[in-house]
């Protein structure tokens, strides 16, 4: 499997990342361990989590996903060497924002939960305009100097702020954001493609987009409002995609999938993987069977005419 660099960093990964938001939420510890084993044994490495995962679940406080990953790593057997750990800071209430002291405290907490000495990719989960960018980048620089972080990335940044951060890093000799984590999928396109995508390509920033399957809509599981009952957790988000354009996208996914003996989800991920700006889209699964379906997308090569057909069906978003 061809590995792709994460920006200009020393890290390279297979072209699909696992979304660890399900750990401690829709995947309990045993299921999470099985998923992590299957993911890494198949040759994939990038696992994306955050300190806030999964604080939204009743009874949870946050940090559950990192703790589960840490307990999985503690089993040994070369697990730490097989995985590239990406986590984030800024959105969790006890560690909100990007003030230097908060970043330092948050990474110590994450390292303790993960049971590791270094985070491979440490990301600003969201922008914090109340803190000067040079202060935030300086805090990340100290973490790299301390050997606690290998590379840094940004999530949910605007193009203007990302460009400003990259310019500051270059001018001041600070570590730069090597990755960008935006919302991006076959339905949600304009927000990334208009300004962020050209910036990422011009500045060699790796892209590891989230909501790659549009909250499950692009799997084809939800084709009418009656189908929303299949998942109470996803119904609200999926309903937004049930319009004429969304159904047109599903029809195009069906047609391309039929030609490959594939599934709509595999085609939707393959479309992302084929995008020159994308390093590794993030996708989640709650069972090994479901995960194996998604991983097959990395071996699915779409023809130019199929990509063009998907582009046409999804135009306007």
TrEMBL record:
Residues 15-313 form the NADP-dependent oxidoreductase domain. CDD domains: AKR_AKR9C1. This is Aldo/keto reductase.
